[in-house]
Amino acid sequence: MGNVYLVGAGPGDPDLLTIKGMKAIQAADVILYDRLVNKEILELAKPSTKFFYCGKDPNKYSLPQEETNRMLVSLAKKGHTITRLKGGDPFVFGRGGEEAEILAQHQIPFEIVPGITSGIAAPAYAGIPVTHRDYSSSVAFVTAVNKPGMSKEAYWEHLAHGPETLCVYMGVKRLPEICELLIRHGKSIDTPVALVHLGTTTSQKTVTGTLGTIVEQASSIKNPAMIVIGDVVQMRQKISWFKEQVAELEMTLP
Question: What residue stretches are annotated with the Tetrapyrrole methylase domain (predicted)?
């Protein structure tokens, strides 16, 4: 029986990979990697390592999760040391919990190697702390897709009255709907919003606005991008530090 490392590769900048994650990559006979894993990180593997792409592209055919699960089990039962490499953190919208559950069911040894999630790293590189004594004492990491069993209206109503900072994953295509629902359920139209495209990479681009203006402001932003909603976005004007490589579209916030 082999073993599996479920590894978070971090948000994009290869220097943000953890040392433990690097060791798991170097130890692997087989690496199954996702779409958002920086290809520079794959170069850390030994020359004999075999690679399998398991990415999920919203605009193209993607390998079904069930097939990825099957590959993990099959390869581990053949005695391989496998590193399942995911962008960000494996347990933050990375389906790492589902894969760990399958491995446990088949009694395959596995280890979780956390990674830096883009919900923290992308705002940080844009000069936005997700918490701040003057602006926010709570933060939620959420997906734009509401969980099964909860209506869309109930989901966003809950978030409109919840944490002071929202970090929204996988939400670019639904940005108009997200803004409309949050405003409808009581969030101020003047609430600051930022979109950080390809955060922590040399292609990072940040656009800021408000719930009332961000849809027009961010019309050029494509996936992948992190949406940050809350007063902490105002801090970008004071502590923006990372030199972005493309022109910014900024709206002065109150």
Answer: 4-214
pLDDT (tens digit, 9 = 90+) per residue, 43-66?
999 999 999 999 877 666 678 999
Q: Are residues 197 and 210 in the same domain?
A: yes
Catalytic residue among 34, 187, 205, 235: 34
Do 150 and 97 have their domain in common? no
Assess whether 161 and 97 both reside in one domain. Answer: no
Q: Is 71 a catalytic residue?
A: no
Q: Domain holding 128: CATH number?
A: 3.30.950.10
Strand extents, DSSP E, 54-154: 81-86, 110-113, 139-143
- Residue 245: predicted pLDDT: 56
Find how far residue 149's CA is from the centre of its chain: 23
Are residue 90 and residue 9 in the same domain, yes or no? yes
Known active-site residue 56: yes
Q: Report the interhelical angle of 65-77 vs 96-105 (nearest 10°).
A: 40
pLDDT digits (tens, 9 = 90+) for 211-229: 999 999 999 999 999 999 9
